[in-house]
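B., you asked whether I could sanity-check this one before it goes into the benchmark set. Here's the sequence:
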Amino acid sequence: MDQAVQSWRRATLVFPGQGSQHSGMAARLVQMSRAAADIFRRADDVLDMHLSRLCVEGSDAELEDTAVQQPATFVTSIAWLAALQERWESLDRKIEPYLLAGHSMGEYTAAVAAGSISFEEGSLLVKERGRLMEEAGRDNPGGMASILGLPEATIEEICEQASSEGYVGLATSNCEGQSVVSGAIAAVRRAMELAEKARARRVVRLPISIAGHSPLMARASEGMGRLLQRLSITDPRQPLIGNTRAQVINTQPEVLEELRDQIIMGVRWQKSVEAMIARGSDLIIEVGPGSVLTRVVRRIDYSIPSLSISDENEGLFSDKFRELEAAAL
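And here's what the prediction gave me:
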């Protein structure tokens, strides 16, 4: 964090995906920020559900429902963004992010933050994304597994060997030694066996009943494509770094393609972070609940300052963050 006090002229905002939610994740946020509380009120109206209650006082069990997880994480992340913008406006300075990116579902949050999609449309999109993915999972049952301690090249070889049991592929490459595979149940099990034989540090079947970020989600991707075509998506105000190709996204067609294809393609997070750094980002701020992405960024390149906006010790409402603002402004 002390490194981050140097500057934030090129701050990149990154938004977490499904799995970052936790009980009470918005309790302090709505007390500290009027702008954040307003986001939750708007979300309740748009989604016709008491999402604000779930994010403030909902149990972990309630938040584990896929139909709740995705909109809850999306709305909480946008609420943190609103609190950050509220803070920046109070400083009487116009501060804009240099780049934006999201991890998996977080790409929808990033698109809203960049002004490509309205908050209301983004809320409905994320809710529909969850429904379509559950539906695709019923048609093509699958699963996902986390594999730690093996290089990406080895996991790709493992997936190729296990594909005799059905499709299985690399779904997420967060950083070296931290990956997720996804596919048909039998193929995922075979990949887990092969990973254990290859002496992976840890192999865990994830509590997910769908094969996210794989071709088994083709029906969901097609459904999202049709829905996205009906929306008034615009060019992003700030460049986005996409998951699927780790490339800069500057135009409306590129935004649409990324949000459609990311359901069936892998999350290349390490390459995305490397692209942010290569373009000159001097600070990466995780905007949303938890600090999963911050920890991953630090594993990828500890020299780039990074922080989680929701962290009690260095986040938005901490003394350290105020030090950062004072030094940067």
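One thing to flag: The first strand starts at residue 11 and ends at 15. Otherwise nothing jumped out at me.
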